[in-house]
């Protein structure tokens, strides 16, 4: 309970939006008979919108990869869908 009050006081004093994500995890020790809590504050940057030029560059890169690697799906002996490529390294993004 004390940790929750301290957390609320910290958030109130730091201002709104100071941390985008707050997570607290607590464990109880049977040897020491006390509750140990850890609070993690993380700030997540909002993603920016892609420009038309960046979208076009990504489309061209995808087309270049697909033309070079010629990906093909197949089902293996265990029933898993797998990919095979015309050249080695395509699974790692090689496109030339």
Describe the structure.
The protein has two helices and four strands, in the order αββαββ. The chain has 96 residues and is an alpha+beta fold. It has two domains: 2-42, no CATH class; 68-96, no CATH class. The chain has a two-stranded antiparallel ribbon. The model has no long low-confidence stretch (mean pLDDT 80).
Question: How would you summarize what this structure contains?
Answer:
By secondary structure, the protein is an alpha+beta fold.
Helices and strands in order, then pairings?
Blueprint (H helix, E strand, L loop, with lengths): L1 H13 L6 E8 L6 E8 L9 H18 L2 E4 L5 E4 L12
Antiparallel strand pairs: 1-2, 3-4
Strand order of the largest sheet: 1-2
Structural class: alpha+beta
- On the 0-100 scale, what is the average pLDDT? 80
Number of domains: 2
- Spans with pLDDT under 50 lasting ≥5 residues? none
Give the DSSP E fraction (strand runs of 2 or more residues).
25-35%
Number of strands: 4
Order of helices and strands: HEEHEE
Tally of individual helices? 2
Percentage of residues assigned to helices:
25-40%
Largest sheet: 2 strands, antiparallel
Work out the oligomeric state of the chains in this entry: single chain
Cα distance, first to last residue?
60 Å
Rg, Å, rounded: 25 Å
Q: Could you say which overall geometry the principal axes of the C-alpha atoms support?
A: flat
């Amino acid at each position: 309970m004390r940790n929750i009050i301290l957390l609320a006081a910290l958030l109130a004093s730091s201002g709104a939006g100071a941390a985008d994500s707050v997570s607290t995890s607590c464990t109880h020790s049977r040897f020491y008979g006390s509750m140990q809590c850890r609070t993690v504050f993380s700030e997540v940057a909002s993603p920016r919108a892609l420009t038309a030029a960046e979208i076009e560059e990504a489309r061209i890169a995808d087309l270049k990869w697909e033309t070079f690697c010629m990906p093909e799906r197949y089902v293996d002996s265990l029933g898993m869908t797998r990919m095979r490529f015309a050249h080695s390294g395509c699974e790692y993004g090689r496109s030339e």
